[in-house]
UniProtKB/TrEMBL annotation:
Protein name: Glycosyl transferase
Glycosyltransferase 2-like domain segment(s): 10-102
Keywords (A to Z) from UniProt: Glycosyltransferase, Transferase
Any one GO molecular function term: glycosyltransferase activity
Keyword Glycosyltransferase: yes
Transmembrane segments: none
UniProt cross-references to InterPro entries, sorted A to Z: Glyco_trans_2-like, Nucleotide-diphossugar_trans
Family stated for the protein in its record: Belongs to the glycosyltransferase 2 family.
C-alpha cells in the first residue's frame, strides 16, 4: 500500500512583501494540499496583500508581535499538526525561498523509509546553479568523530555534504540541515515523539537544533537532492561571520552555545574553550565604531547562552545593539 503523502507548505514572513510575493507565486504553482503563512506582525502591507488572495489552500496566521523565525515556525508546525488532519508531511521555508516547479511531484514519487522523520532538499541560489552555502546539509562531527578526524584538514567540508552529493540519484543520511526545504513527518509531532521548534530561540540555529533533537529521538534525516529549492539569501553567502544589523550578533552566539551543547554532549566544555574566544575575536572584522557594541552584545549572548537564559526581550536586544556615538 502506498504511504499517504499529503504535503503542506509552511512559510514564515516578516516585512519582506516583495520577496513573499515571489515565494508565494512559486508555492501556489505547486500542488501543495495546504499552504500556511505565518505573518510575524509585518508592517509593510503584508497583511492586506495576503487578505486579497483567494486560493482556498491558503491559511494565513497573523501573529500579534514578531516572534522571529523560530516563533513563526513553532506556530506553523503547531497549526498543521493540530488543525490540518489530512497533513502527512510539512515542508517549511522562509519568505525569501521557494520550491522549484515540480517539488510536490518529486516528493510524491519518493520511497521514503519508515524510519525517516525528516528530509532535506538541495537548496540553490536564485540562478538555480550555485549551491546556497548557508543551507548546505551536514553531519554532526561529534557523532562521527572517526570520520571527522580523518577529514579534519578539510574544514567544514569534512562534515558538510559535498558538491558531488548534490548530483546523487538517491538519498544520503545526514544529521541536520536548515529550515529551507526541510520536510517533516507530521505524525511524529502529533504523537509527541518530537516537539515543536523552540520559539524562545527567536532566530538562528533553531532549525539545526530541531533536526538534531529529532535525530536524537531516533529518526533518520535524509538529504534528497532531487528535491530542489532556491533561496534568495543575503546573509553569509561568502561565509564571513559578520552580522548586520548588529542585534543579530546576540542571537547568533547565544543560540550557537545551545547548538554546541546538544551536538557535542560530553565534549561541550572543550568546545567552549575554542568557540568563546573565536566569537570575541570576530570583533576584528567590524568597523571600529561598531566594536564596542559588538563586544557588549557578544558578552551578553555568551552569559545568557551559558546560563541557557532565553528570556531577554527583543526590545532589550535592540537597545544593546545601539552604536554609541563618540
Amino acid at each position: 500500500m502506498t504511504e499517504p503523502k499529503q504535503l503542506v507548505a509552511v512559510i514564515v514572513t516578516f516585512n519582506r512583501l516583495d520577496k513573499l510575493k515571489v515565494t508565494l507565486s512559486h508555492t501556489l504553482a505547486n500542488r501543495f494540499a495546504h499552504i500556511v503563512v505565518v505573518n510575524n506582525a509585518s508592517t509593510d502591507g503584508t497583511d492586506q496583500w495576503l487578505g486579497s488572495l483567494a486560493d482556498q489552500r491558503l491559511h494565513v496566521i497573523h501573529s500579534e508581535k514578531n516572534l522571529g523565525g523560530a516563533g513563526g515556525f513553532h506556530i506553523g508546525f503547531k497549526y498543521v499538526s493540530e488543525q490540518l488532519n489530512d497533513a502527512d508531511w510539512l515542508v517549511c521555508f522562509d519568505d525569501d525561498a521557494y520550491p522549484e516547479a515540480n517539488v510536490v511531484d518529486v516528493f510524491e514519487s519518493l520511497d521514503i523509509p519508515d524510519g525517516a522523520g525528516s528530509l532535506a532538499a538541495a537548496v540553490y541560489l536564485p540562478d538555480g546553479e550555485r549551491i546556497s552555502e548557508m543551507n548546505r546539509p551536514s553531519r554532526n562531527p561529534f557523532w562521527h568523530l572517526r570520520h571527522f578526524l580523518g577529514t579534519a584538514g578539510s574544514g567544514r567540508k569534512g562534515f558538510h555534504v559535498r558538491d558531488s552529493d548534490y548530483l546523487a540519484s538517491g538519498h544520503i543520511e545526514i544529521d541536520t540541515s536548515s529550515f529551507v526545504g526541510c520536510f517533516v513527518r507530521v505524525r511524529n509531532i502529533r504523537q509527541g515523539l518530537i516537539g515543536l521548534p523552540r520559539s524562545e530561540l527567536f532566530i538562528y540555529a533553531d532549525d539545526v537544533i530541531y533536526i538534531l533533537e529529532s535525530r536524537k529521538a531516533g529518526f533518520k534525516h535524509l538529504f534528497v537532492p532531487a528535491l530542489r529549492f532556491r533561496h534568495d539569501c543575503e546573509t553569509l553567502i561568502d561565509q564571513q561571520d559578520v552580522y548586520h544589523p548588529l542585534w543579530k550578533v546576540y542571537y547568533t552566539y547565544r543560540n550557537r552555545l545551545e547548538l554546541y551543547r546538544i551536538a557535542s554532549t560530553w565534549l561541550y566544555p572543550l568546545v567552549l574553550l575554542v568557540k568563546i574566544p573565536s566569537f570575541l575575536l570576530t570583533v576584528r572584522h567590524y568597523d571600529p565604531a561598531e566594536r564596542g557594541t559588538f563586544l557588549r552584545l557578544a558578552r551578553a549572548s555568551i552569559m545568557d547562552g551559558l546560563r541557557r537564559d532565553y528570556s531577554k526581550p527583543h526590545t532589550e536586544v535592540l537597545e544593546l545593539a545601539k552604536v554609541e556615538q563618540s
